[in-house]
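Predict the holo structure. Ligand: magnesium ion.
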Amino acid sequence: MRLKALIFDVDGTLADTEEAHRNAFNDAFAAAGLAWHWNAALYQDLLRVAGGKERIAHFIGTLPIDEAEKARLRARVPALHADKTQRYAQRVAHGQVVLRTGIARLVTEARMAGVRLALATTTSPQNVDALIGATLGAGALDWFASRVCGDAVAAKKPSPEVYLRALSELGLRAQDCVALEDSANGLRAALGAGLCTVVTPTQWSAGDDLAGAALVIPHLGDAQCPLDGRDAARVGAPCLGLAAIERLRTECANALEATI
Ligand code: XBP
Ligand code: MG
Protein backbone atom coordinates (compact mmCIF):
# COMPACT_ATOMS: atom_id res chain seq x y z
CA MET A 1 0.00 0.00 0.00
CA ARG A 2 1.44 3.39 -1.04
CA LEU A 3 -0.40 5.22 1.76
CA LYS A 4 2.28 6.33 4.20
CA ALA A 5 0.41 8.61 6.65
CA LEU A 6 -2.96 9.96 7.74
CA ILE A 7 -2.93 13.63 8.74
CA PHE A 8 -5.89 14.47 10.99
CA ASP A 9 -7.39 17.85 11.69
CA VAL A 10 -8.42 18.12 15.36
CA ASP A 11 -11.47 20.29 16.03
CA GLY A 12 -14.52 18.88 14.31
CA THR A 13 -12.62 15.90 12.91
CA LEU A 14 -11.15 13.94 15.83
CA ALA A 15 -14.00 15.18 18.01
CA ASP A 16 -16.94 17.58 17.74
CA THR A 17 -15.29 20.14 20.03
CA GLU A 18 -16.83 23.46 19.04
CA GLU A 19 -19.66 23.49 21.59
CA ALA A 20 -17.05 23.04 24.33
CA HIS A 21 -14.94 25.80 22.75
CA ARG A 22 -18.00 28.07 22.53
CA ASN A 23 -18.83 27.53 26.20
CA ALA A 24 -15.21 28.15 27.20
CA PHE A 25 -15.16 31.43 25.25
CA ASN A 26 -18.37 32.55 26.98
CA ASP A 27 -17.09 31.54 30.41
CA ALA A 28 -13.88 33.51 29.83
CA PHE A 29 -15.84 36.58 28.69
CA ALA A 30 -18.05 36.43 31.80
CA ALA A 31 -15.04 35.97 34.10
CA ALA A 32 -13.48 39.07 32.51
CA GLY A 33 -16.63 41.11 33.13
CA LEU A 34 -17.41 41.38 29.41
CA ALA A 35 -21.11 41.26 28.51
CA TRP A 36 -20.41 39.18 25.40
CA HIS A 37 -22.30 35.96 24.70
CA TRP A 38 -21.61 33.95 21.58
CA ASN A 39 -24.79 31.95 20.87
CA ALA A 40 -24.63 29.01 18.47
CA ALA A 41 -25.75 31.00 15.42
CA LEU A 42 -23.17 33.75 16.00
CA TYR A 43 -20.46 31.19 16.78
CA GLN A 44 -21.15 29.28 13.56
CA ASP A 45 -20.54 32.55 11.69
CA LEU A 46 -17.44 33.36 13.75
CA LEU A 47 -16.00 29.90 12.97
CA ARG A 48 -15.23 31.23 9.51
CA VAL A 49 -12.30 32.89 11.28
CA ALA A 50 -9.70 30.25 12.19
CA GLY A 51 -7.97 30.63 15.53
CA GLY A 52 -9.47 31.63 18.86
CA LYS A 53 -7.41 34.79 19.27
CA GLU A 54 -8.17 35.89 15.71
CA ARG A 55 -11.86 35.06 16.27
CA ILE A 56 -12.08 37.29 19.37
CA ALA A 57 -10.24 40.12 17.58
CA HIS A 58 -12.59 39.79 14.59
CA PHE A 59 -15.62 39.93 16.92
CA ILE A 60 -14.26 43.10 18.57
CA GLY A 61 -14.00 44.63 15.12
CA THR A 62 -17.74 44.12 14.64
CA LEU A 63 -18.74 45.95 17.86
CA PRO A 64 -20.42 49.41 17.62
CA ILE A 65 -17.67 51.16 19.60
CA ASP A 66 -14.96 53.65 18.73
CA GLU A 67 -11.51 52.60 17.55
CA ALA A 68 -9.83 53.56 20.83
CA GLU A 69 -12.13 51.20 22.74
CA LYS A 70 -11.54 48.47 20.15
CA ALA A 71 -7.79 48.90 20.61
CA ARG A 72 -8.18 48.63 24.39
CA LEU A 73 -10.20 45.45 24.02
CA ARG A 74 -7.80 43.96 21.46
CA ALA A 75 -4.99 44.41 23.99
CA ARG A 76 -6.90 42.02 26.28
CA VAL A 77 -7.21 39.22 23.68
CA PRO A 78 -4.09 37.21 24.68
CA ALA A 79 -5.16 37.03 28.34
CA LEU A 80 -8.78 36.32 27.40
CA HIS A 81 -7.72 33.50 25.08
CA ALA A 82 -5.31 32.02 27.62
CA ASP A 83 -8.15 31.87 30.16
CA LYS A 84 -10.49 30.38 27.54
CA THR A 85 -7.91 27.71 26.68
CA GLN A 86 -7.59 26.74 30.33
CA ARG A 87 -11.37 26.50 30.69
CA TYR A 88 -11.67 24.45 27.49
CA ALA A 89 -8.95 22.04 28.62
CA GLN A 90 -10.80 21.58 31.93
CA ARG A 91 -14.03 20.77 30.10
CA VAL A 92 -12.18 18.20 27.98
CA ALA A 93 -10.41 16.72 30.99
CA HIS A 94 -13.84 16.30 32.64
CA GLY A 95 -15.00 14.18 29.70
CA GLN A 96 -17.20 16.76 27.98
CA VAL A 97 -15.79 15.82 24.55
CA VAL A 98 -15.71 12.36 22.97
CA LEU A 99 -14.08 11.09 19.78
CA ARG A 100 -16.19 11.11 16.66
CA THR A 101 -17.42 7.85 15.17
CA GLY A 102 -14.68 5.74 13.63
CA ILE A 103 -11.69 7.79 14.81
CA ALA A 104 -10.47 5.27 17.42
CA ARG A 105 -11.04 2.42 14.95
CA LEU A 106 -9.09 4.12 12.10
CA VAL A 107 -6.24 5.19 14.39
CA THR A 108 -5.89 1.60 15.60
CA GLU A 109 -6.07 0.25 12.04
CA ALA A 110 -3.37 2.67 10.89
CA ARG A 111 -1.07 1.85 13.79
CA MET A 112 -1.43 -1.88 13.16
CA ALA A 113 -0.70 -1.41 9.46
CA GLY A 114 2.32 0.83 10.02
CA VAL A 115 0.61 3.88 8.50
CA ARG A 116 1.97 6.89 10.33
CA LEU A 117 -0.26 9.45 12.07
CA ALA A 118 -0.04 13.24 12.28
CA LEU A 119 -2.12 16.20 13.45
CA ALA A 120 -2.49 19.52 11.64
CA THR A 121 -4.69 21.92 13.56
CA THR A 122 -5.50 25.57 14.22
CA THR A 123 -6.05 25.02 17.90
CA SER A 124 -3.56 25.32 20.75
CA PRO A 125 -1.14 22.58 21.87
CA GLN A 126 -2.72 22.55 25.34
CA ASN A 127 -6.06 21.71 23.74
CA VAL A 128 -4.54 18.91 21.65
CA ASP A 129 -2.81 17.42 24.70
CA ALA A 130 -6.03 17.61 26.73
CA LEU A 131 -8.16 16.05 23.98
CA ILE A 132 -5.79 13.20 23.08
CA GLY A 133 -5.11 12.46 26.74
CA ALA A 134 -8.80 12.41 27.68
CA THR A 135 -9.95 10.33 24.71
CA LEU A 136 -7.05 8.06 23.62
CA GLY A 137 -4.97 8.05 26.83
CA ALA A 138 -1.87 9.82 28.10
CA GLY A 139 0.61 7.88 25.97
CA ALA A 140 -1.36 8.40 22.77
CA LEU A 141 0.29 11.72 21.95
CA ASP A 142 3.39 9.73 20.95
CA TRP A 143 1.36 7.86 18.32
CA PHE A 144 1.35 11.09 16.27
CA ALA A 145 4.74 11.49 14.56
CA SER A 146 3.97 15.16 13.92
CA ARG A 147 1.63 17.52 15.78
CA VAL A 148 1.48 20.97 14.16
CA CYS A 149 -0.66 23.52 16.02
CA GLY A 150 -1.96 26.92 14.94
CA ASP A 151 0.61 29.22 16.50
CA ALA A 152 3.53 27.16 15.12
CA VAL A 153 2.99 28.65 11.66
CA ALA A 154 2.69 32.23 10.40
CA ALA A 155 -0.74 31.75 8.82
CA LYS A 156 -3.59 29.57 10.09
CA LYS A 157 -6.01 27.59 7.92
CA PRO A 158 -7.11 28.03 5.14
CA SER A 159 -3.40 28.63 4.62
CA PRO A 160 -1.76 25.25 3.84
CA GLU A 161 1.12 25.98 6.21
CA VAL A 162 0.15 23.57 8.99
CA TYR A 163 -0.14 20.74 6.47
CA LEU A 164 3.07 21.65 4.70
CA ARG A 165 4.83 21.69 8.07
CA ALA A 166 3.36 18.29 8.97
CA LEU A 167 4.51 16.81 5.64
CA SER A 168 7.96 18.26 6.21
CA GLU A 169 8.17 16.83 9.73
CA LEU A 170 6.98 13.46 8.42
CA GLY A 171 9.45 13.64 5.53
CA LEU A 172 6.69 12.51 3.19
CA ARG A 173 5.21 13.69 -0.12
CA ALA A 174 1.60 14.86 -0.16
CA GLN A 175 0.65 12.19 -2.71
CA ASP A 176 1.61 9.46 -0.25
CA CYS A 177 -0.69 10.79 2.48
CA VAL A 178 -4.38 11.55 3.06
CA ALA A 179 -5.82 14.39 5.17
CA LEU A 180 -9.03 14.18 7.20
CA GLU A 181 -10.93 17.39 7.81
CA ASP A 182 -14.36 18.74 8.84
CA SER A 183 -14.64 22.24 7.35
CA ALA A 184 -14.11 24.41 4.28
CA ASN A 185 -11.17 26.22 5.94
CA GLY A 186 -9.52 22.90 6.69
CA LEU A 187 -10.26 21.43 3.28
CA ARG A 188 -8.74 24.44 1.54
CA ALA A 189 -5.64 24.18 3.72
CA ALA A 190 -5.19 20.46 2.97
CA LEU A 191 -5.85 20.88 -0.77
CA GLY A 192 -3.43 23.80 -0.81
CA ALA A 193 -0.77 21.40 0.45
CA GLY A 194 -1.63 18.96 -2.35
CA LEU A 195 -3.33 16.44 -0.07
CA CYS A 196 -6.15 14.10 -1.01
CA THR A 197 -8.76 14.97 1.61
CA VAL A 198 -11.70 13.18 3.23
CA VAL A 199 -14.23 15.49 4.91
CA THR A 200 -16.64 14.53 7.70
CA PRO A 201 -18.63 17.75 8.31
CA THR A 202 -20.31 18.54 11.63
CA GLN A 203 -23.39 20.69 12.25
CA TRP A 204 -21.00 23.65 12.52
CA SER A 205 -19.69 23.14 8.97
CA ALA A 206 -22.82 21.64 7.41
CA GLY A 207 -23.24 24.51 4.95
CA ASP A 208 -19.57 24.77 3.96
CA ASP A 209 -18.41 24.61 0.35
CA LEU A 210 -16.56 21.27 0.25
CA ALA A 211 -15.75 21.22 -3.46
CA GLY A 212 -12.46 19.42 -4.06
CA ALA A 213 -12.88 16.85 -1.28
CA ALA A 214 -12.08 13.30 -2.42
CA LEU A 215 -14.98 12.08 -0.27
CA VAL A 216 -17.60 13.72 1.97
CA ILE A 217 -19.30 11.39 4.46
CA PRO A 218 -21.14 12.14 7.74
CA HIS A 219 -18.60 10.16 9.81
CA LEU A 220 -16.00 7.40 9.37
CA GLY A 221 -18.28 4.59 10.59
CA ASP A 222 -17.58 1.83 13.09
CA ALA A 223 -19.19 -1.41 14.28
CA GLN A 224 -21.55 0.45 16.62
CA CYS A 225 -22.45 3.12 14.07
CA PRO A 226 -21.90 1.97 10.49
CA LEU A 227 -22.36 4.28 7.51
CA ASP A 228 -25.88 4.15 6.05
CA GLY A 229 -26.61 2.34 2.77
CA ARG A 230 -25.84 5.24 0.41
CA ASP A 231 -22.58 6.26 2.07
CA ALA A 232 -21.53 2.62 2.58
CA ALA A 233 -22.07 2.05 -1.15
CA ARG A 234 -19.84 5.01 -1.98
CA VAL A 235 -17.12 3.77 0.38
CA GLY A 236 -17.61 0.10 -0.54
CA ALA A 237 -17.94 -0.82 3.12
CA PRO A 238 -19.89 0.21 6.27
CA CYS A 239 -16.75 1.96 7.61
CA LEU A 240 -14.00 3.99 5.94
CA GLY A 241 -10.89 1.86 6.33
CA LEU A 242 -7.35 1.95 5.00
CA ALA A 243 -8.20 0.02 1.84
CA ALA A 244 -10.82 2.58 0.82
CA ILE A 245 -8.53 5.44 1.80
CA GLU A 246 -5.75 3.96 -0.33
CA ARG A 247 -8.19 3.78 -3.28
CA LEU A 248 -9.03 7.46 -2.77
CA ARG A 249 -5.35 8.36 -2.55
CA THR A 250 -4.63 6.50 -5.79
CA GLU A 251 -7.53 8.20 -7.55
CA CYS A 252 -6.29 11.60 -6.38
CA ALA A 253 -2.73 10.85 -7.50
CA ASN A 254 -3.93 9.60 -10.92
CA ALA A 255 -6.13 12.66 -11.38
CA LEU A 256 -3.19 14.91 -10.52
CA GLU A 257 -0.91 13.09 -12.99
CA ALA A 258 -3.55 13.43 -15.69
CA THR A 259 -3.36 17.23 -15.34
CA ILE A 260 0.43 17.31 -15.80
C1 XBP B 1 -10.56 24.85 14.68
C2 XBP B 1 -10.31 26.26 15.03
C3 XBP B 1 -9.84 26.59 16.42
C4 XBP B 1 -10.92 26.23 17.44
C5 XBP B 1 -10.70 26.95 18.76
O1 XBP B 1 -9.30 24.25 14.63
O2 XBP B 1 -10.44 27.12 14.18
O3 XBP B 1 -9.62 27.98 16.44
O4 XBP B 1 -12.19 26.65 16.95
O5 XBP B 1 -9.41 26.63 19.27
P1 XBP B 1 -9.03 22.94 13.66
P2 XBP B 1 -8.40 27.83 19.69
O6 XBP B 1 -8.02 23.41 12.63
O7 XBP B 1 -8.50 21.87 14.58
O8 XBP B 1 -10.36 22.54 13.03
O9 XBP B 1 -9.20 28.77 20.57
O10 XBP B 1 -7.28 27.13 20.43
O11 XBP B 1 -7.96 28.44 18.39
MG1 MG C 1 -11.54 21.36 12.07
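The pocket of magnesium ion (ligand 2) is lined by residues 9, 11-13, 182-183, 186 (CB under 6 Å). The chain has two domains: 5-17+98-259, 18-93.
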